[in-house]
Write a structure and sequence with these properties.
With 269 residues, the chain is mainly alpha-helical. The chain has a domain of 159 residues: Methane Monooxygenase Hydroxylase, Chain G, domain 1 (Up-down Bundle), CATH 1.20.58. Helix 1 packs parallel to helix 3, helix 2 packs antiparallel against helix 3 and helix 3 packs across helix 5. 10% of the residues are buried. About 8% of the residues have low confidence.
Length: 269
């Protein structure tokens, strides 16, 4: 059972991944000693380098998790975690130094090869290039660029064993930052589109409110006129009922007093 399981399941999982990588690095360097071909050695060194990058990332993650748990752990546990971190860093640095040694040996082999082939082979090399096809020339150029990149990496390693890891981390951070900025730009574009839609909706709503206001004002005027007419009619009816002989008020159809009955001529006579 992993001793880190009692502290944190995450720490135990990270420690297990680091241990697996260390075993893979140990087996990889043992196999590398048996490889004689320089190109195969270069490819295997690149694979081992990638594993070391992943191991460094996991060690950083282990340290971050351990610091998050410092307040909950007792001093002995924190001391044990710190010692384990230092031990893993030391083991990783040993593999980095071993990788540097193999890279230096490969570089020396290439230098010896070029030095041995410089004298007496210049014209043959020119003739060989002149007889190569376009595809062969392209492949040769790509191989030379790959070798140049590897030489640059070896120079970085020669300056500091861990500098190449820092450079790679910087490149990874730059890539992640660019992706985050792109996502934020797309999100801002979406927000701008939403704001434009909201602005258009508010403008449309304002126009509808104005039209409704005008309609309400018109309806109020009509109702006021109708109210005045009704009031006037009621007033005339009241006045007529109170004073039917008032000549100043015209008769309202249907409310006028009955007309005088006409007498026939024969009855009058």
């Amino acid at each position: 059972m992993d001793p880190f399981s009692a502290v944190s399941e995450e720490l135990a999982e990270i420690h297990g991944e680091i241990s697996d990588i260390f075993r893979a690095l140990s087996n990889g360097f043992q196999k590398l000693e048996k490889v004689k071909d320089s190109n195969r050695q270069s490819r295997q060194l690149e694979e081992l380098t990638e594993k070391m990058r992943e191991c460094k990332r996991l060690i950083k993650e282990f340290d971050r998790k351990a610091k998050d748990l410092e307040s909950r752990n007792d001093p002995d546990t924190n001391k044990m975690l710190n010692e384990k971190k230092q031990s893993m860093i030391k083991e990783l640095n040993s593999y980095v130094a071993l990788k540097k040694q193999y890279a230096s040996n490969l570089e020396n082999k290439r230098i010896d090869l070029f030095d041995g082939g410089t004298e007496g082979y210049g014209e043959d090399n020119v003739l060989l290039a002149s007889t190569m096809t376009n595809q062969q020339l392209v492949d040769s150029g790509n191989q030379m660029m790959d070798e140049t990149d590897q030489a640059i990496e070896r120079k970085i390693i020669s300056v500091s064993p861990c500098l190449w890891l820092t450079v790679q981390d910087t490149v990874n951070v730059g890539t992640e930052t660019a992706a985050a900025l792109k996502a934020q730009t797309e999100q801002m574009s979406w927000v701008v589109n939403v704001l434009d839609s909201i602005h258009f909706s508010i403008k449309k709503a304002s126009q509808l409110v104005k039209e409704l206001g005008r309609q309400v004002a018109t309806d109020k005027c009509i109702m006021a006129l109708l109210f005045l007419i009704v009031v006037r009619v009621i007033a005339i009816i009241i006045v007529k009922l109170v004073n039917p002989n008032n000549k100043d008020i015209k008769d309202i159809p249907g409310l006028a007093p009955p007309a005088m009955t006409r007498k026939l001529l024969w009855s009058a006579s």
